[in-house]
Amino acid sequence: MRKYVIAPSILSADFKRLGEDVRTVADAGAKYLHIDVMDGMFVPSISFGMPVVKSIRPVSNIVFDVHMMVEEPGRYAEDMKKAGADILTVHQEACCHLDRTLNLIHSLGMKAGVALNPATPVETLEWVLGVVDMVLIMTVNPGFGGQKFIPYTLDKIRKLRNMIEERGLDVDIEVDGGITTGNVCEVARAGANVFVAGSGVFGGDAAENVRTFVRIFEGLK
User: Fold this and answer.
1) Quick check: is 176 catalytic?
2) Which of 27, 28, 96, 145 lies at 20 to 30 Å from 123 by C-alpha?
3) pLDDT per residue over 41-77, tens digit each?
4) Cα torsion 62, 80, 200, 24: sign
5) Catalytic residue among 14, 27, 36, 65
6) CA–CA separation, 22 vs 17, rounded Å?
């Protein structure tokens, strides 16, 4: 049975009360916390880094799902582990030596994920699919919150799920961008099981929004 997970993105949280927001979504049933790290080079925006991750780590034992939208992210893997990351996801497009980076992440005791931008084919992961724990399909172009879901990414999710099942692998498919309670079922049917939601959680009553996602997932089982 597939495990469905909501991963609220703190990019949309209230930074004046970040610790409280983290505690709120964790108490409401979120199992992952999605943390977008942006360097202003791989993507246009600059977000936050290790000090912020470290500062909120004591707030909850929720899984820290850290998404590295930076150039050559392997440079920061050890520091992210020390800051409290549990899953470290790097972009295929940002790694000169992807296999080396994935093995480094595992050697540090974290789960390793690979992210693909909307226009990047899933076939680029053919030779590393067996060594990743999760693949993140970007369903918007990375760098900004609040964007609309790109419809053609559903076909990418289906193709990736078929690749995983044909090989008998146990790999999560995470999606990030434009996920709402209105489209999450369609995305889940395509094959995704970990759902990043920023404004879809923090754009209103965060606790109730998380509980709504969880109720939807219970209906999918």
Assistant:
1) yes
2) 145
3) 999 899 999 999 999 999 999 999 999 999 999 999 9
4) positive
5) 36
6) 9
